[in-house]
Amino acid sequence: MKILLLEDDHLLNEAIMKYLTLSGHLVEPFRNGTHALASIESSEYDLLVMDINVPNLNGLDLLQILKNKKIEIPTIFISAIIDIDDISHAFELGCQDYLKKPFHLKELGLRIDKILQSSYIPHSHIRLSKNYSLDMDNSMLCFNGDVQVISERHMKILSLLAINRNRIVDYPLFQEYAWDNTEVEPPTIRAEIKRLKKILKEDIIVNVRNMGYMVKRPS
């Protein structure tokens, strides 16, 4: 997932960026609200993680501008502000979560996981490679625009990998999403993914040994 990080504290910015990068996310860090806004307007992000008190343009004003421009991106605020009016305003502007400083980095990771698995992230059309794309709304896999017929389970596997591009999907998550929480052993999951890989015309699914699988974001 591509994340924009807006945090003016240098050490915290670096710590969050390192943690999220190691978790498999692509992170672009900013310490200035104006620069962050310019990047949001010119690039695509799956999630914003923002402090409120940052130079030039604070996080709340930035989110207000995005709302006015009808740019909707899931947002988590990380802030030391505990005033209930500010927190209420953040949610009124459309943020999905509010994490009060200080916090454990793993807690931020869990909050991101929750958003990732929810309906907040728009997934309607996701490019998996130069030739493959996934129409999430209509559950269709396309190769150079032509619809490819695959099973419902294979579609669930690809959908899970697609919304987690550049991030390792582990076996428990496959079990929850593609097997509807039915108890299934890793060898069964590996066998099903192996069958899917044989069907695909490109080798887009990467096996990360002893961890799971991933699809890389197209360059």
Spell out the blueprint of helices and strands.
Layout: E1 2-6, H1 10-22, E2 26-30, H2 33-42, E3 47-50, H3 59-68, E4 75-79, H4 84-92, E5 97-100, H5 105-116, E6 125-127, E7 132-135, E8 140-143, E9 146-148, H6 152-163, H7 171-178, H8 186-199, E10 205-208, E11 212-215
Parallel strand pairs: 1-2, 1-3, 3-4, 4-5
Antiparallel strand pairs: 6-7, 7-8, 8-9, 10-11
Short description:
The protein has 219 residues and is an alpha/beta fold. The protein folds into two domains: 2-116, Rossmann fold, CATH 3.40.50; 125-215, Winged helix-like DNA-binding domain superfamily/Winged helix DNA-binding domain (Arc Repressor Mutant, subunit A, Orthogonal Bundle).
How would you describe what is shown here?
The chain is α/β, with parallel strands linked by helices. It folds into two domains: 2-116, Response regulator (Rossmann fold); 125-215, Arc Repressor Mutant, subunit A (Orthogonal Bundle). The chain has helices at 10-22, 33-42, 59-68, 84-92, 105-116, 152-163, 171-178, 186-199; strands at residues 2-6, 26-30, 47-50, 75-79, 97-100, 125-127, 132-135, 140-143, 146-148, 205-208, 212-215. It has a five-stranded parallel sheet, sandwiched between helices. A four-stranded antiparallel sheet has the order 6-7-8-9, with helices on one face. A hairpin with a 2-residue loop joins strand 8 (140-143) and strand 9 (146-148). The protein starts with a strand and ends with a strand. The mean pLDDT is 88.
